[in-house]
Write a structure and sequence with these properties.
The protein is of the alpha/beta class. The chain has helices spanning 5-13, 29-41, 66-76, 88-91, 98-109, 135-141, 154-163, 166-174, 186-194, 205-214; strands spanning 16-22, 46-51, 83-85, 116-122, 143-149, 176-179. Helix content is 42%, strand content 15%. Helix 3 (66-76) runs antiparallel to helix 10 (205-214) and helix 5 (98-109) packs parallel to helix 6 (135-141). It is globular and about 45 Å long.
Length: 223
């Protein structure tokens, strides 16, 4: 993670830290909404966004380059005084496991030894959570914040109750935040861009300008 000396000191002063991972391909309004909800509902002092290099749950899908996804995330977070970006998963070989990131991030980011980690999980990643690498341990390292879209499949929660350790599932329930349905998804945004459309309500203007300038997700992109 690269911060100025001032920013590094700020990170060391945080006590309640949210860790928000994802491919951010591209980052859109839905991602930022999840981040804001997590920050507000759990009184987080700051958020660390961690773009994934090789998401283990998206095998075979080609992502935009690491440099482009990082640049788009930086643009989207302009003006966020309590948000940082970690390139930890870009720098680490192998699959981008959240368990590994939560273990390594505090020391790599210069967080205080007594800070409390919260891992932010979007509604679309809840299905199959029990199959994440070392899921029970991962959800013990950090308090999960599950931003659950109203109208989602309640059976997903019932399945997690059956498959996760009971104490861990209780942590998931404590972190459950129900929000109105969000219209944006990365899949929908990419599809619109590939059709030559400009999903202006879903992407920040500076991010959309960057996408156009770089020719990312154009009609000929295969994703």
């Amino acid at each position: 993670m690269s911060e100025s000396a001032r920013e590094a000191r700020s990170l060391a002063q945080l006590r309640r830290v949210g860790v928000y991972g994802g491919s951010f391909d591209p980052v859109h309004a839905g991602h930022l909404h999840v981040a804001r909800v997590a920050r507000e509902k759990f009184a987080l002092d700051g958020l660390v966004f961690v773009p994934a290099a090789r998401p283990p749950h998206k095998p075979g899908r080609e992502l935009a380059s690491e440099a482009d996804r990082l640049a788009m995330l930086e643009l989207a977070l302009e003006g966020w005084k309590d948000a940082w970006i970690s390139t930890l998963e870009f720098e680490r070989s192998g699959p981008s496991y959240t368990y590994d990131t939560l273990r390594e991030l505090p020391a790599r980011a210069g967080l205080a030894s007594d800070c409390v980690l919260h891992v932010v999980i979007g509604w679309d990643n809840l299905r199959g959570l029990e199959r994440w690498h070392r899921a029970n341990e991962m959800l013990t390292l950090a308090q999960p914040i599950v931003v659950w879209r109203e109208g989602g499949d309640e059976e997903v929660l019932a399945h997690l109750a059956r498959t996760l350790d009971p104490k861990v599932f209780a942590r998931v329930e404590r972190g459950l935040v129900r929000v109105p349905p969000a219209p944006e998804s990365s899949t929908d945004v990419r599809a619109a861009l590939e059709r030559g459309e400009a999903p202006e309500s879903a992407i920040a203007p500076n991010v959309l300008e960057y996408i156009r300038a770089r020719g990312i997700y154009g009609p000929r992109s295969v994703r």
